[in-house]
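Interim report to the steering committee. The following record documents the input for Sodium/calcium exchanger 1-like (242 residues).
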Amino acid sequence: MENFSMEMRYDVGDCPNYNCSAKGLLLPIICEYTWTPATRAALYLIGLFYSFLGVAIVADIFMCSIEMITSKTTKIKVAIPNTNETEEVEVKVWNGTVANLTLMALGLQRSLNLFLLLSIIEIVGNDFQAGQLGPGTIVGSAAFNLLVIIAVCVAVIPDDEGRRINHVKVFFVTAFSSLFAYIWLYIILSVNTKGVVDVWEAILTLMFFPILVIIAYVADRDFCGRKVSVTMSALELGIKIE
C-alpha cells in the first residue's frame, strides 16, 4: 500500500517513471497506475480470459484442419487374385507415422507450442537472453507429457484388457529420440558452451526433427527388414503378372 500511495503522487506525464511501465512487452498499454488495484485486476482477468478463449478457438480450428488433411484419401487399383479384374480401394495419402510426428503432434501439443511461442517472444524482447520463462518451461512441459501423461494412459487401462504396440520399431525410434532430446539439451547448455547456445547447435537441433521423421518413416515401412517385390507393386496398380 505504501508503494501504491507513492505511485499515486505521480502525474499523468510521469508514466515512464512508473515502476511497472517497462515490465512487460505489451502491457501496460496506457498509464493505469492511478486506477485502483481491484479495477486493474478485473481488467487484466478479463483480458486473460479473452486471450484464452481466442487461443481455444484457434486451436480447435487448427486441429480440425489437421484432421481433415491427414484423413485425405486417394483411390488406387488393386488386382483381384486369379482374375483379370481390378477393384478400386481408398488409401490414405499421408503415412500414419509421418502424420503423427508432424501435423498431428503439432495440433495435439498446442499447449507446448504456446510455451514455445512465449519463450521466443521473451528471448527476442530480452536481447536474446533467457528470461524468467527460459528453456525450463518447455522442458518441464515436455517432461510432463513424457512421464505423467504416459503414466495416466497406462494406469487407466482396465485389468481385464490390454493394449499392444503395432509398430514396435517406430516406438523404439521415438522413445530413443525423446530421451536423446534431454541429453542433447544438457550437452549444449551445460557441457559444450555453458549457458550459451551457438548457431551451429541451434541449426543441428532443428535438423534433428526431419531426421527423426525420416528414420521413423523408414522404420514404419520396414525398408531395412524386407524387400518390396515388383510383383506386389504391379498388383497394386492392376498389372497382370504371369
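Helices lie at 2-7, 37-70, 96-108, 110-125, 134-155, 168-192, 199-221, 230-237. The committee is asked to note this result when reviewing the revised timeline.
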